[in-house]
Amino acid sequence: MVDVQNDFCPGGALAVPHGDETVPLVNRLSENFRNVVLTQDWHPAGHLSFASAHAGRSPYDTIAMPYGPQLLWPDHCVQNTAGAAFHSGLQIPHAGLILRKGLDRTIDSYSAFYENDRTTATGLTGYLRERGITRVFLAGLALDFCVRYSAEDAVREGFAVVVIEDACRGIDVQGSIAATRSSFAALRVACIAAAAISVTRAA
Ligand SMILES: [Zn+2]
């Protein structure tokens, strides 16, 4: 369950339109899963993905970082702020791991598996492998960034990947939703509706 946090919901610093609508769905979905991981975007103040950290830059500008192009965002999900907290409606008490990401001030981290340099691992692959997990289901925010990158990396790590599409919401910056759809198609990431889950009997 990717980044279901206040700043990504309406009223938050980097609101994903209708982001809060994922909350009841992910709550219900999670009841079908024994192994649940929550990810939490968790930046230090002054994180270099924030436009405010770069003189003369605005949110949604793209700059060159040592690891490649970086889209700049409004300040969001700063450690220990209300915006970084999970949405208050999120009720997944049996989640076994809360994986925080974006802690390095100099590298953004969309994916649950790798930071945006795509080489610094978060350790999630090892966590899942040691628990014998071979298939990953993804839901949450935002479809075209953190869910997308997580799905792509999960494929790269050899997991079967399913995105529960109606339990995600997107931002759609510079055609990012369309790019996400073509990437998922190319990688054969399965996209399903939440209603399909109870019959899938996920591990
Ligand atoms: Zn972030």
Alpha-beta classification: alpha/beta
Morphology call: globular
The radius of gyration is: 16 Å
Strand fraction equals 15-25%
The chain-level mean pLDDT equals 96
Q: Give, in spatial order, the strands making up the sheet with the most strands.
A: 5-6-7
Largest sheet: 3 strands, parallel
Extract low-pLDDT stretches: none
Number of contiguous helices: 5
Question: Percent helix among the residues?
Answer: 10-25%
Bound molecules: zinc ion
Task: Describe the SSE topology.
Layout: H1 22-30, E1 37-41, E2 62-65, E3 68-71, E4 97-101, H2 124-130, E5 135-141, H3 143-156, E6 160-169, H4 176-187, E7 190-192, H5 197-200
Parallel strand pairs: 1-4, 5-6, 6-7
Antiparallel strand pairs: 2-3
The structure holds zinc ion (ZN).
Zinc ion binds at residues 41, 43, 49, 76-77, 102.
Task: Describe it.
- The mean pLDDT is 96.
- 23% of the residues lie in helices and 19% in strands.
- The protein is globular and about 50 Å long.
- It is built from five helices and seven strands.
- β2 (62-65) and β3 (68-71) form a beta hairpin.
- The two termini are 15 Å apart.
- The protein is of the alpha/beta class and 203 residues long.
- The strands form three sheets. A three-stranded parallel sheet has the order 5-6-7. A two-stranded parallel sheet has the order 1-4.
- The structure holds zinc ion (ZN).
- Residues 41, 43, 49, 76-77, 102 line the site of zinc ion (ZN).
- The site of zinc ion has 6 residues, from loops.
